[in-house]
Amino acid sequence: MDTIIGILKESYFLLNRMSPYLLFGFFFAGILHIFLDAGTVSRHLGKSSFSSVLKASLFGVPLPLCSCSVIPTAMSLRREGASRGAILSFFISTPTTGVDSIFATYSLLGGLFTLYRVVASFATGVLAGILANFMIKEERPEPEAEARKCKLCGAEGEHIHSILQRIKGALGYAFGDLVADSGVPLLAGVVIGGAITYFLPEGFIGTYLGSGIKAMFIMLLVGIPMYVCATASIPIAAALILKGMNPGAAFVFLVAGPATNIVTMTVVSRNLGHRALGIYLGSIAFSSMALGLALDKIYMHFYRGQIVHIILRGREAIPGFMGAAASIVLIALIMYNLLKNKMQPGGIWI
Fold first, then answer.
1. What are phi and psi of 349, to 5 degrees?
2. Which pLDDT tens digit goes with each residue over 303-341?
3. What's the pTM value of the predicted model, to 2 decimals?
4. Taking the domains of the chain in order of start, what are their residue ranges?
5. Distance between alpha carbon 51 and the CA centroid of its chain, in Å?
6. CA gyration radius for the chain?
7. From CA 260, how far away is CA 291, in angstroms rounded?
8. How far apart are CA 251 and CA 271, in angstroms?
9. Cα-Cα-Cα-Cα dihedral of 117, 121, 124, 125, to 10°?
10. DSSP state of 317
11. HSE on the CB side for 320, CA within 13 Å?
12. Which distant-in-sequence residues (6+ apart) come within 8 Å of 196 by Cβ?
């Protein structure tokens, strides 16, 4: 019982710290989803050019899609004529960030780490896209003639919704679909982070996993096949840093974990080819390791490696009552969506 209470206590601290930022991030993600036109995006990604890769990575950074939910979006863009380079760029930059993940990263790891993560995600996507355009020659695929369905009502053809209807749809997506998709993995990540904080003694990471390249390589091997979304990976990374892991190794996990998993690798191989898969994995491995080493240098220079104190100080940044209230709201939304999805339209439990 003492063990359970200890894990829940540490998880409580993590959740209270993240919840206010997560709620705002979900809201912003809903606005982005409704007001961003996918047709406009797809028209910019068709050519095997540097600009299409830049745009794909730039479009992907704020979208709140995990490494599995990004698959249908990316394949839809491919059917609409997007190049392999643009798709690989989108495949990497999208699941490694997202507005909800950006706010959550800031809540636990601070502004510098957040900015670095966003820039690194963008740069890694661009690298993969450029390599694909250079190494894989292809004709531009012909867009498939499919009628677009409205995000709000599902209707096809030209029609207009009022601003009020679109805002209502944005809220429904943000605190309905998005919370339903990421809520359980998020809570699981918080509990795992709490368990790491409770169980691992100080210095364990440095003693048994080492530091520098060794720790980064281990995190790369752990992260590549693992399914963990960008937001759920943050409390795990924060807990590992608190137990002695260098920021660079935690950063490798935050890139490799959300960007890859077995399902995504299979889709990339089947739809884009084995060479594209090699570029995809190679770009993630090289960029995460190189940028992880650079991040360690930055922290050693500016903070003398004291990122732990940044995380601990951040626990006091939000008043306790505000964090607790936001946590209650977030958990209530997650539970509501779980119960809603377990019920048939007629209200019969299945």
1. -70, 130
2. 655 555 555 454 445 566 788 898 899 899 989 988 887
3. 0.71
4. 2-341
5. 23
6. 21
7. 17
8. 29
9. -170
10. S
11. 2
12. 236, 239, 240, 243
